[in-house]
Amino acid sequence: MSKITTELLLERAVPRSTRLRKIETLNLSKLQLKTGDLDPRLFSRLRHLQKLDLSDNLLDKFPNSLTLPDLRVLNCNNNKLEDVTALKQFPLLEELTYENNVYLTLNDDYKVMFLLQNLRLLNGKDITKLANHVRRVNSRKLTSKVTAHWEKFFRDQLPEKYTAEQVKSIRKKFLKSVQTNVVYGPSSLSEFTRWRVKMIAEEFLAYSLGLELNSDTEPEEKMEENEEESTESPREAAEDVAQVGDFSSYISNVTVTRSKRKRNHSKSSPGKKKSKTQANTKEEAAEDVSAEPLHFLQCHSKGNSREDFKTQLWSCVFEPVLDSGARKDPIVSSSRTVATCGGESVCLIDCETGTVLKKYKVATEEFFSVAWTTLTMVISDSRKKAHNILAAAGRRGIVKLIHVAADFCYGEIKAHKKPIATVCFSPTQETHLFTASYDKRIALWDIGIPDCDYNFKASQLLVLETASIPLRIALVPTCPEQYLLAGCEDGCFAWNIQLDKGQKSRPFEAIFQFPGEESMTTSHRVDGLAFLNDDVVVSKSSKPGCIYLWSWSRSFDAKGKGCQQTMSAVILAELEWSTTDMSYLTLSTCPAKEYVFCGDEKGSVWMYNLSNYSTAWGSPKGKRSERRISPTQILQWPELRVNGEQPPEILVNNVVADPAFTYLVVLTSVNITAIWKKS
């Protein structure tokens, strides 16, 4: 039985009414309504309805025949809408809001601006000027491009006397070709452009060849992002995006004092002098990296406010290249596109141009971690194609699964009842996702592979019990299906994760003891953890200035009997780092270039080139370096002024390089993403 009845409509009218045809304002918010509850036969009696509030419901789309001929104001905030094209049935609509519908993007904004000729306000913003541009200038340029494409490639393919079969064949080829090759505007609007190009092409064919317009709703063929090229200059593209206000990414009125960018050669902590032996060692002679800051972005602001310098940024990871054989060659396994998260949003950024390509927002979320995987999905005609999928998780304990090329968040996994600190995918099993939570559990999920309608089934395979909150996790490179390491609030632990053991819930198998830790009661928080190569682990503890490099194979005794044994970490070296006692400033590695990176409490990035040490560490009897290894270089935060003032205290929460170490992405505590490039 439908939730909506005549009695309910009369009761929810503002003011209450005795006749449906007299209702002008109707509030149907917070009723848990689904699309099937909107009965067209009942709504067709609301002939004079002008204002409709459907916020805070569960609508995923609109029925195509609601017949509200006088509707002027529509509120659809906080639903699950996936498509906006059905809104064209309300031609008099002047004000429309659909904020906090996570599946809707900037492309949908442009669609409604084109479809609704009377629309003035969209999500509370005056879009009159931009809408006129979309309807006129944009349409004119696309029409010109579509016509030129026909003239150049298809006009001569039709004989003077053609059959219906020939027309059908050329129509199919033309629609596919024109959507692939006609591009215009920034790549963030590629879906809207393809949608308009298809529409214009069908109108052109109808006019030129007398064909009927295709009114079906079959999905468009999706073009991969790397097949597109913008026909506008970067400035024009940025202006096109900025008018909607969705991507206020560049910090306005920024002044950077270049003298503060100078490269710092290997140096100790502030106030300490290097000894003569430290300054002249062979290892210290490693060449400095020449790097310059490219971009400073503020793309995670709450409510897109340029005054937001409080949102913390936590995690970033570079997108894998689909055709690179990513699991074989790390140097070519990454693009220049990086996913970043913090606050209520996840952003995809082109590191070279500084363009925010896509942005996903969940108003009630605070994202802590993102991870990529590549799934081989079935597309049209039962063909298979590899697509990159992004997993994002945070305070709500929910994992969002995003098909980036399709601009579509296709599902979610309610993984934990408490926040998720970090996530990572298995490098060998593309659907296996680990989630580490504040509930003191690490779960292994099989996220499944979505079908062509994005139906998928996720299942929990394993639960690892931890003694404290897990902060960082890493799979052992030589046996990623057998062992997992986790840095936790009270130490570093290891688990056996083999799925053929039968035991679904498992305690840890080992805890690693570091210098100065006589027992678990004196263990330190491990808030940084990564592998430098197949054997060397880099871990950072809450002990001031302490980053250890240690051997996994020489520390872990797989033949040891029983669980929860304490094992001494075989230390290979200790890295000199800031003396701060501040926690959660995590580290990362670039294995292909043998680098370690870690930010500090002053906005600086400490970089360690360890290529001169790896051979010695790799030998069976490799000895521990007797002295602390100083950073090869420290990149200092430039003197950045925003509106004439310096931002508040800057902590570097995370810093990540792409596998080829071309770009370095720095995430801060003040809502600034800094991108450096090696020159």
Question: How would you explain this protein's 3D organization?
Answer:
By secondary structure, the chain is of the alpha+beta class. The chain folds into two domains: 6-209, Leucine-rich repeat, LRR (right-handed beta-alpha superhelix), CATH 3.80.10.10; 291-318 and 335-678, Methylamine Dehydrogenase, Chain H, CATH 2.130.10.10. It is 16% helix and 30% strand. The protein is built from ten helices and 39 strands. It has a six-stranded mixed beta sheet with strand order 1-2-3-4-5-6, with no helix packed on it. Helix 4 crosses helix 6. The model is unreliable at 212-249, 258-286 and 324-332 (pLDDT under 50). Residues 290-678 form the Leucine-rich repeat and WD repeat-containing protein 1 WD domain. Its main location: nucleus. Keywords: Centromere, Chromatin regulator, Chromosome, Cytoplasm, Cytoskeleton, DNA replication, Kinetochore, Leucine-rich repeat, Nucleus, Repeat, Telomere, WD repeat. This is Leucine-rich repeat and WD repeat-containing protein 1. Residues 215-231 have a biased composition (Acidic residues).
Task: Tell me the name of the CATH class of the largest domain.
Answer: Mainly Beta
Structural class: alpha+beta
Task: Estimate what percentage of residues fall within beta strands.
Answer: 25-35%
Overall pLDDT confidence: 83
Biggest beta-sheet profile: 6 strands, mixed
Give, in spatial order, the strands making up the sheet with the most strands.
1-2-3-4-5-6
Radius of gyration in whole Å, from Cα? 28 Å
CATH topology (fold) name of the largest domain: Methylamine Dehydrogenase, Chain H
Overall morphology: globular
What is the CATH superfamily of the largest domain?
Answer: YVTN repeat-like/Quinoprotein amine dehydrogenase
Main location: nucleus
GO biological process, one term: DNA replication
Subcellular location: Chromosome, Centromere, Kinetochore; Chromosome, Telomere; Cytoplasm, Cytoskeleton, Microtubule organizing center, Centrosome; Nucleus
Protein name: Leucine-rich repeat and WD repeat-containing protein 1
